[in-house]
Structure formats: C-alpha cells, structure tokens
Amino acid sequence: MSEENIVKINEVITHYFNTNPSVDWIPVKEIMPALIEAEVFNKDNKKGLPIRKVLRKLDLKSELAKIPSVHAERRSDTIYWYLIRAGKKYEPKELISPVTKKEQNLHAIQNSDEYYLVNLCDELLQQKASRKHTFDTLVGNLHKRGKGRTKLPLDAYYEDLKLVLEFFRKNEDTDELDEKEKARKAQIKYYNQLKRKAILTKKLRLIEINYALFECNDANKLFRNTEKDRLVLKDILKDFV
C-alpha cells in the first residue's frame, strides 16, 4: 500500500465521520464502499478483507499509527478492526467473547444431549465410540456446483461390536413449517434412508434412539438423571451389554 493511498484512506475516514456526526466508531468493513469510490480499492470481498489486509501489514511493521483512527481489538485467535472518531473511545455494544468460535463449538458439542448419551453408552459397552463416524461410500447429494459430495456422519459407531447408534427427536407437524424448513426436513429424511441402507450393506446393527425415551423438559432437552438414563440405555443395548 503506497503512502498516497494511506493518505486517501485517512481522508475517506475523516470525511465519513464528518458526514456522520452521530457515529463514534464503526467496523472497518463499513468504510469499504467509500474506499472503493475513492479508488483506493477496486472491489470488496469477504466483508472488508482488502482494508483488513492493509491493516495487518501495517500492524506487522508497527506502523498502525499511519491510520490514527484505527483500533485493534485483539483476541486469542484474531483481531477485530474498528475505526474511531478522533477524541472518542471504542465502547462495544456487546462484549466479544474471549472464547474462540472453535472453543464455543466444541463446548456446544460436549454439552449436547447426544454427547452425554454416547458417554453413557461408552460406559455400558466398555468401548469408546467413533463419534460422527463417516464411510467413504456414505455420501450426500452433489453440491450446488455439481462437484463433490459431503460424507454423512453417523452419531456413534462401535467397530468391534459392528454397532451404529443414531439419536433422533420426533419431527414436529410439517404443516406448520415454511417451504425452506420442509425441504430441510425432507433432506434429513432422505439422508437417514441412505444411512440405513449403507449400514445394512455393511452388515452392521443399527439402533435408533429417540430422545423422548428419556425425561425431558419443555424445551425437549434431557434432565440428565444419570441413573435413570443409564437404565433406559441398558435396556436398549441389552444385546450388547
């Protein structure tokens, strides 16, 4: 990025805040249309990537001061870039979680009812399941561009026992769903049929477990009474326990 373009960026930022007196700070992506109009960049992609690349390079050279309005909100896995009006401070409307998205997703998985029940199954079967197990021959429809298919994961696979566990909740009345949701439900139903066929072909045993067999709250989440839940699973898995 040339010094001339750095000057242009600062001019665009100053003009933005002068014409938007009620705004004290913005994410850098919001300045992109003005930067394109000023011919600093030809186009935008990935919601502000061009300006973020410039800021990263300046940051690596310890030259962020060349764009005085820039504020870098540093987190463990990334940097959130903002532009601040001169004399003002960055005050986020919502606190950004210090936990990364990857950590959040992992936490959500580990706190799910499925993860909890598979843990109990592992204890009862005295084996560790392969979670979200995939087979090369078990794949979904072609992607929109007609290239590639996604492998369909199985909830829990016990290779030594030749056993597959799939967990499900009873579908709600489809009459109350919009067309997009109906299509998604139909796809899930179709994929479940593919799974059953693939499991049968591989001569594996499939056990489908309804969450409704366990005590649930109004939100259909398990109360997680471990002793009671273990007894329910022990009966379901009686051929293997």
Can you walk me through this structure?
It is built from seven helices and nine strands; from the N terminus they run αβααββααβββββαβα. It is an alpha+beta fold. It folds into two domains: 82 residues, no CATH class; 125 residues, no CATH class. The longest helix has 23 residues. The chain is elongated, with a radius of gyration of 26 Å.
Kindly list the characteristics that best describe this protein.
241 residues, alpha+beta, three-stranded antiparallel β-sheet, 7 helices, 17% strand, elongated
Task: Sum this structure up briefly.
The protein is of the alpha+beta class and 241 residues long. It is built from 7 helices and 9 strands, in the order αβααββααβββββαβα.
Oligomer: single chain
Terminal Cα span: 66 Å
User: β content, as a range?
Assistant: 15-25%
Mean pLDDT: 89
Tell the overall outline. elongated
Helix content: 25-40%
Number of domains: 2
- Order of strands in the sheet with the most strands? 4-7-8-9
Unreliable segments (pLDDT under 50, ≥5 consecutive)? none
Number of strands: 9
Count of individual helical segments: 7
Note the run of SSEs as H and E. HEHHEEHHEEEEEHEH
* Structural class estimated from helices and strands: alpha+beta
Secondary structure elements and pairings:
Blueprint: H1 3-19, E1 25-27, H2 32-37, H3 49-60, E2 70-74, E3 79-84, H4 101-110, H5 113-125, E4 130-133, E5 139-142, E6 149-151, E7 154-158, E8 163-168, H6 179-201, E9 205-210, H7 226-236
Parallel strand pairs: 8-9
Antiparallel strand pairs: 1-3, 2-3, 4-7, 5-6, 7-8
Helix pairs in contact: 5-7
